[in-house]
Amino acid sequence: MFEARGGALDALDYPRFAKETFGITQIDVWNGGFPKEQRADPAFYSELKKRADQAGTKIFLLMAGAVNSEAEDRAKQVAIFKQQIDFAVMLDARFVRVFLDTPKAVERSVSLSRAVAALKPIADYAQSKGLVIVIEPKPNQYSGDGVYLAELAERMDHPALRLMPDFGKMRLDDPYGGTVAMMPYSASVSAKSHEFDADGMSREFDYPRLMKSIVDAGFTGIVSIEYEGKELGPVEGVKATQALLEKLNRK
Question: Which pTM value belongs to this model?
Answer without folding.
Answer: 0.93
